[in-house]
Amino acid sequence: LQKPIAPSQVLAAISQTLQQSHQALSKLLIVDDDPQILKILQNFLEPEGYDLILLDNPLRFWEILEQTVPDLLILDVELHGCPTSNGTSQNAELNGFDLCQIIRNDPQWHNLPILFLSAHTDSETVLQGFEAGADDFLHKPIVPTNLLIRVRKRLEQGKMRRQTELDSLTGVSNRGKSMQDITRLLRLAVRQQQPFSLAVLDLDQFKLVNDRYGHEMGDRVLNYFGQLLSQSFRREDVVGRWGGEEFVVGMYGISKENGVKRITKMLNTLRKIKFTARDGSEFQVTFSAGISQLIEDGEDLQTLYRSADRTLYQAKIQGRNRILA
Ligand code: GH3
Ligand code: MG
Ligand code: MG
Ligand code: MG
Ligand code: MG
């Protein structure tokens, strides 16, 4: 569990993770301490084109879960050698139900569909699974058609749940979802000793846009701005809408200096855009931003946000349309 993992590896995992909604491939994490079961599942599921992560060593469960963020979790009930979520009590033997319960109590995994696989078919065991928060329960030996149908159904369910994590006007993550993602990346950045910067962006004098061109036009600008944000950052960056015309970007592996460069590039793009109002008049929009950096400006999301927000305020005072760090 302590083994250091190459930063590039982590970055690749994050990158995949955050782009799930744009990815055709669904990611399935399958945990079973019996490698033979994993092999069978692989044979059934691989031809379907799923991205499979097979884990027969429950010791690595929490690490793998956090790094891959699967679309579906398939869990064995009886697992041997699974540690608690913080990895402290090494002798604690958790079974699949225990894992399921811990996952369900963590808001970060609220939307993750969980499917149990067990040789135990008695109703008491099945009931225990659902009480632990499972979404479905399948019996061993595995019946292929049954498995494939259930997997597909649970993936659809997960996709629908995730829709609620997006801001409908701008298409970026909503506040809750982006807070969870950033918190997770912050934990990772601390563990991997990687830089992390947080930017708070606020559109300049947006009230005027509404007042002059109408609220509907304001909405269109916000929608465009959301798209520009999504396009401007790497797959592994977290973009969230935190307020009316306020957005947050969390950048893993990026120093404050590089963060400024990225946001500046985006501001330069926005400066060139001409919006056309209904009466045909053209107008432009800018934003101001403040950026903070892990450790130096704060060690958790709250302090980093406060620091970036204070800097944003300075940018507004100094005349807006600028980025300060
Ligand atoms: P500043 O440069 O100081 O940030 O000025 P501002 O006008 O942008 O700031 P202020 O906080 O005074 O106003 C924010 C405006 O953003 C007010 C509100 O009408 C508008 N706004 C917030 N959410 C939405 C939205 O979803 N749609 C539209 N059209 N406007 C919104
Ligand atoms: Mg087992
Ligand atoms: Mg304001
Ligand atoms: Mg504003
Ligand atoms: Mg504002």
Automatic annotation (TrEMBL):
Signal sequence bounds: none
Highest taxon of source: Bacteria
Residue span(s) of domain Response regulatory: 27-155
Positions of the GGDEF domain: 194-325
Residues recorded with modification 4-aspartylphosphate: D76
Protein name per the record: Response regulator
